[in-house]
Amino acid sequence: MGDSELEAIRQRRMQELMAQHGMANQQNPDQRNAQEDAKREADERRQLMLSQILSSQARERLARIALVKPDKAKGVEDVVLRAAQMGQITEKVSEERLISLLEQINNQTSKQTKVTIQRRRNVLEDDD
């Protein structure tokens, strides 16, 4: 993926963010349609790049993850695309490698939960 494609994706993302923050109300319908078309094009390019990078089993697993946790799937897609852009991925990503990548991401983002049990003391309890 070239620098021009990356810059186009960044510009589209910036437009999306501005649209989410209320800037869309000031635009006419033609501009909104153009933005929607640009967003669709960016999504199509993203999916095309992922299909070139991921094996079919890995794509299926990522699609199943996206059904349950779309944010996590998008994050994994971003990591895979970034690694491919940097040249760290030279061959198709297998399902096993995707699983190990998911485990690494889970370890980095997992939150430690702590359970504290506080017992209430009965006010009417007599120790006599």
Automatic annotation (TrEMBL):
Transmembrane regions listed in the UniProt entry: none
Gene Ontology molecular function, alphabetical: DNA binding
Biased composition (Basic and acidic residues): 33-45
Region (Disordered): 17-45
Residue ranges with Polar residues bias: 23-32
UniProt xrefs under Pfam families: dsDNA_bind (PF01984)
One GO term describing the cellular component: nucleus
Matching InterPro entries: PDCD5-like, PDCD5-like_sf
Entry's family note: Belongs to the PDCD5 family.
Matches recorded under PANTHER family: PROGRAMMED CELL DEATH PROTEIN 5
Protein name, UniProt field: Uncharacterized protein
Organism: Dioscorea zingiberensis
